[in-house]
Structure formats: structure tokens, C-alpha cells
Amino acid sequence: MTSQSQGIQQLLQAEKRAKDKLEEAKKRKGKRLKQAKEEAIAEIDHYRLQREREFRHKQSNIMGSQGNLSTKIEEQTTEKIRDITNSFHKYMENVMKQLLNMVYDIKPEIHPNYRDTV
Q1: Radius of gyration of the chain (CA)
Q2: What's the rounded mean pLDDT across residues 19-39?
Q3: Contacts of 39 (CB under 8 A, 6+ apart)
Q4: CA angle in degrees (0–180, nearest 5) for 33-34-39
Q5: How many percent of the chain have pLDDT more than 70?
Q6: Which helix (H) or strand (E) holds 28?
Q7: Region 77-89: what's the mean pLDDT?
Q8: What is the DSSP string of 32-62?
Q9: What does the DSSP 8-state code read for residue 31?
Q10: pLDDT band, very low/low/confident/very high, at 67 (cuts 50, 70, 90)
Q11: Is the CA virtual torsion 107, 113, 114, 115 positive or negative?
Q12: Which residues of 75-99 are buried (b: 16+ CB within 10 A; e: fewer)?
């Protein structure tokens, strides 16, 4: 009976060792999963930061070129206003003389469609 009892004891010990190994394997698996999750989160954060930097860089390039464009338009507008003002001052006197001459030199004429009703 002792040999039978020893056999049962050995089986129980083997079962306990197997159970301990399973628990240890589960713990290692849990640790690996947790570590993999942390690594994935770190990689995602790194990727997100990289994409945000690229976006900000592209945005600054585009907005910078728009700022330059608005500056160019402002300069062109100022130049055109200056040209129109100079042209106004240059031709104002001649135009006023022509206009006044037309107003002062009235030549009374009868309109061609006028019918004499007398």
C-alpha cells in the first residue's frame, strides 16, 4: 500500500507542478501582453507626434505662403492706387478745361426732329 500511496503522492506532486507551471506561464503571458500593450501605446504616441510635427510644418509652409501672397497683393494695391492718383493729378486740369469749354461754348441749334407747327 505504501507503494500505491507513494504513486498517488507522486501523481499529486506532478499535478501540482504542472498547475504551478501553468500559472507561471499565464503570469508570463500576462506580463508579455502588458508589455506589448505599453510598447504599442508608446509607438502610437511617437507616430502621432511625428504626424503632428509634419502637419504643423506643412501648415506653416502653406500659411506662410498665404501671408506672403497677402503682402504681395497689398503692395500691388498700394502701387495701383498711387498710379491712379498720379494719373488723376496729371490729367485733372486738362479734363476740367475741356469740360468747362463744353459748358461755356453753347451753340443753340434747333433739333432736326423739331417740326414747325405754324
Answers
A1: 49
A2: 95
A3: none
A4: 95
A5: 95
A6: helix 2-104
A7: 96
A8: HHHHHHHHHHHHHHHHHHHHHHHHHHHHHHH
A9: H
A10: low
A11: positive
A12: eeeeeeeeeeeeeeeeeeeeeeeee
Residue 65: per-residue pLDDT: 67
d(C-alpha 61, C-alpha 67), whole Å: 10
The band of 71, judged by pLDDT with boundaries at 50, 70 and 90, is confident
User: pLDDT above 90 covers what percent of the chain?
Assistant: 61
The grid coordinates of residue 7 equal 504513486
- Dihedral angle at the C-alpha atoms of 45, 48, 54, 59, nearest 10 degrees? -130
H/E run at residue 10: helix 2-104
CA pair distance 45, 54, nearest whole angstrom? 14
CA triplet 70, 74, 77: central angle to 5 degrees?
A: 135
In angstroms, what CA-CA distances link 46 with 20, 25, 40, 49, 51? 39, 31, 10, 5, 9
Q: List Cβ neighbours of 107 (8 Å cut-off, separation of 6 or more).
A: none
**Please, what is the end-to-end C-alpha distance for the chain in angstroms?**
162
